[in-house]
Amino acid sequence: MTVAPELAVVVSTIGRRDPFRRLMESVEKSTVARSVELVVVDQSDDGRCAAVLDERNWSMTVRSATSAPGASLGRNTGLALTTAPLVAFPDDDAWYPEDTLGRVIKAFRTGDAFAGLCGRQVTADGRPSMLRWQHRPGLVTARNFLRTSIMSTMFFDRSWLDKVGPFDEDMGVGSPSWYGACEESDLLLRVIEAGGSVPYDPALLVRQDEPRDQPDQAFVTKMLKYGCGQGHLWRKRRLSRPQLAYYCARKLAAASVRAARGDRTLAAADLAWLRGNIAGFRDVEPKSLHRAADSAWPPS
C-alpha cells in the first residue's frame, strides 16, 4: 500500500556522489523511510548523483530534477516538486542518525503548532560541527540563531515556506552574487518575523564533518564568502549591530590565539571571515574575491 509522504528531503548537489549516497542510505535506514520523499536536484553535467536513485529499490519515494548552479536555486527547484507537509534541505554531505527523521515527524504531529524545528549538528564521533551549539533547548530567535540552527538541521512546515517565500537565490554557495552563505538563516528569520515558532532541540542530531579538521586555502576562500553572506544578512534583515560586533570581536580573538599556536590556516580563515562580514555589511565586494574562480558549487 502506498503511504503518503510526511517529510520531503530536498538535496541540491553537483557531483558529490559518495556523500550523497551516504545521505540516501541514512534516510533508507531511518525508522520512517516509507514516509519520506527524497528529491535530488543534480546540477552536475553527467547526472552522477541522480543516477544513485537507480541503484536499488528504495523504501522512500525518490525523484530527481536538474537546475542551473546554485544551492538556493536547486533547493527552490526541488521544493516545487514536493508533496509532503514537512520539508528538510540537508547538505549533500550530511547524514541522519536512524531515529532523527522519526523524531521530527513525531514532533510535528504531537507538538504545538510550530513553523519549524531545529536540531544540532555533530560529527560522526559526536563533536560539535560548524557552530558553537547552545546546550539548552528553547526557541530559535534573531539573537541565538547562530547557535541553534544551520541548514542541515532545519525542518519546516511547508505551509510556512509558501507564506514567506522560497530561498533568496542571490544568497548561498554557487549563487550569482558574492554572498556565499546564510540563505538558510535568511529563510528561517523570515519565518520567525512572520510569527512562526521554531523550537530548538539539541538532542535532535544531524551528522556532518567538521571542515576545520582539515583546513586548506580553499577553506580560507570559502570562509571569506561565508563572511560576506553573513554581513549581507545582517544588513538585509537589520539585525543587531552590537551582536555582529561581538561575533567579529570573538573571531578576531580566535584568529590571534590560533596564530600564536601556529594554526596559520585557521587564523587566516578567521580573518577572511571577519573581512567578509565587514564587506557584506557595507555591501562592498572584497577586491580579492574573484567570482568566476570562487563561485563553484559545491565548496571543495
TrEMBL record:
<comment type="similarity">
    <text>Belongs to the glycosyltransferase 2 family.</text>
</comment>
<dbReference type="GO" id="GO:0016757">
    <property type="term" value="F:glycosyltransferase activity"/>
</dbReference>
<feature type="domain" description="Glycosyltransferase 2-like">
    <location>
        <begin position="9"/>
        <end position="134"/>
    </location>
</feature>
<keyword id="KW-0328">Glycosyltransferase</keyword>
<protein>
    <submittedName>
        <fullName>Glycosyltransferase family A protein</fullName>
        <ecNumber>2.4.-.-</ecNumber>
    </submittedName>
</protein>
<keyword id="KW-0808">Transferase</keyword>
<comment type="pathway">
    <text>Cell wall biogenesis; cell wall polysaccharide biosynthesis.</text>
</comment>
<dbReference type="InterPro" id="IPR029044">
    <property type="entry name" value="Nucleotide-diphossugar_trans"/>
</dbReference>
<dbReference type="Pfam" id="PF00535">
    <property type="entry name" value="Glycos_transf_2"/>
</dbReference>
<dbReference type="InterPro" id="IPR001173">
    <property type="entry name" value="Glyco_trans_2-like"/>
</dbReference>
